[in-house]
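Friendly challenge for the regulars: who can give me the structure tokens for this chain first? No prize, just bragging rights.
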Amino acid sequence: MSHDENTSGLQLRSTVKPDGVLELSLANVPTPAPKPDEVVVRVEASPLNPSDIGLLLGSVDLSSLKASGSAESPIATGTIAPEAVRFMAGRLGQSLPVGNEGAGVVVAAGSAPAAQSLLGKTVSIIGGAMYSQYRCVNASQCLPLPEGTTPEQGASWFVNPLTALGMTETMRREGHTALVHTAAASNLGQMLQKLCSRDGINLVNVVRKPEQAALLRSIGATHVCDSSQPSFMDDLVEALAATSATIAFDAIGGGKLGSQILTGMEIAGSRKAESFSRYGSTIHKQLYIYGGLDRSPTVLNRSFGMAWGAGGWLLAPFLQKAGAETVQRLRERVAGELKTTFASSYAKRISLREALQPAVIAAYGKQATGEKYLITPHVV
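First reply, four minutes later:
Bragging rights claimed.
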């Protein structure tokens, strides 16, 4: 493999201007020669995760999107509500690269043995700015893929797989034995179901459509509760009683769903109480919000006793607290199960230029379950 030091490549950029205009564009950026412990990766595939879409679109009004520029250098613009712009003060006027993870082939490597050992190999990468044709990263940010694994199969190796593993690891560390997950028919939700099935962990899946419930049952889910059904609370309580789940990871964030889950845990836990307490069950119930599919206020109706907690959960802080040995163990597990437990599927594959078309942005910006997009930077 060889790499021209003068090589440059396209990179997708997102800018929120002080007047509340979002601008998406492509920049032609030089690819630096790798330092001793770095490698240059020709990026072949990178997924559009909810966390990526949040940075990319910045709460833009999808109906306001307009196209400009040229076919070679497209530009997309849209408007952001003034109240949302106030929360973006730290990024106003900055042209930001986007994309947490991806996969490709190492085309150049520094002199260090760890970097040289990756030359010519297909690797998964974490490190930001992945909606690029080339990325220069530290060799430690790469995960060599097993022989015969394609970049597309390895593109989503980090965010969703390690989030699923992080959830079950958090469950164990905090003394719980079963868990609840919302928006459970998502790509992540399906991974979590496969992981829990493999590891013998009871999981309560919460979805909002009958077809999503059917999808999860088709991959082995036992406990699926559809929030669109009149019997939702009764179904939820029965599933919580059957599994003894006392920790929940909520991707919705807004509304009353988190409160309903805590209430369901309280009802299920009270069934096992030996005596009545006006303070409710003594079993601790934990709600972690890790997403914001619903941007409305989070409503907690205090009907779940006093033994409870609610907070935020994110992958990066979890990994920092988990320590190097745990992270390495989890990374190795992901690599070994990329084609099974942690396999990803994509509704559509788009180029960098297609990612700037208003109709395409509106489609992936909805973050609809089962409609995960994959960016293929070198496909015209």
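Residues 179 and 218 are 20 Å apart (CA to CA). The mean pLDDT is 94. Your move, everyone else.
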